[in-house]
Amino acid sequence: LGVEFYDLSGRLMGRAAGGDAMGKVGLQAFTWDGRDLAGQVVAPGIYLCRIKIDADDQNSELVRLVHVAY
Fold it and tell me: How far is it, in rounded angstroms, from Cα 62 to Cα 52?
């Protein structure tokens, strides 16, 4: 399971923090503090959140928009 955030040009900006979801079924919660990989606050705007799930029978990927405002 991975949750990553990208700017609209496709550059990886950050990764979500959360508990170890390995082997767990059900609701999973993750957070992103709006900081890039260097620890700097990202600019306000729209980002893509990519959620990737690796499962025994098939892998799934979901992309959603995230709006950052200050």
Answer: 7
* Per-position DSSP letters for 5-69, written without gaps between them: EE-TTS-EEEE-EE---TT--S---EE--SB-TTSPBPPSEEEEEEEEEE-SS-EEEEEEEEEE-
Which residue in this structure is represented by tokens 């990208």?
Answer: 6
34-52 pLDDT, tens digit each: 999 999 999 999 999 999 8
Q: Which residues, 6+ apart, have CB-to-CB distance to 63 below 8 Å?
A: 48, 49, 50, 51
pLDDT digits (tens, 9 = 90+) for 9-20: 999 999 998 755
Query: What is this structure's pTM?
Result: 0.81
